[in-house]
Amino acid sequence: MVTNWTGMVAFYGTDDLEKTHKFYHELLGLNLYKDQGLCKIYSVREGGKIGFCSHLEVLTKEKSPIITLLTDDVDKVYKSLINFGLDVPKPKVNPKFNIYHFFTKDPNGYSLEIQKFLD
Predict the structure, then answer these.
(1) Integer angstrom CA distances of residue 33 from 43, 48, 51, 58
(2) Structure pTM?
(3) For the chain (length 119 residues), average pLDDT per consecutive 10?
(4) Is the separation of the CB atoms in 85 and 76 below 8 Å?
(5) Which of 61, 65, 87, 111 is 20 to 30 Å apart from 1, CA to CA?
(6) 22-55 core/surface letters (b: 16 or more CB in 10 A; e: else)
(7) Beta strand 48-53 pairing with 111-117
(8) What contacts 88, CB < 8 A, 6 or more positions away?
(9) For residues 82 and 56, what is the distance between their CA atoms, to the nearest angstrom?
């Protein structure tokens, strides 16, 4: 089947929708696309969407899943998270994937990667 997809939303569980909202909307600046009560969906420029729902289970294992947000200014996001009081490792170049990035955890325990492609 071939169709013209109009977008995509990846949904994740949360035990604290408001804490998650503050992290993704207020700290990271993602725009709230839709508030469905039990779920909040955020837009990322160029069409991506991510949703968090209080009726879904939080499932994490080591680094999985990884939520990756792309930006041209990894260092600016790093400084914002440090100023917010999070313990975040310094960004670094990963030559294997040709990226500049760092990892942290979101309020739900999901691995959050802030990344820039170098090619």
Answers:
(1) 6, 11, 9, 21
(2) 0.88
(3) 81 96 96 96 90 92 88 95 93 96 94 94
(4) no
(5) 65
(6) ebbeebbebeeeeeeeebbbbbeeeebbbbbbee
(7) unpaired
(8) 78, 81, 82, 102, 104
(9) 29
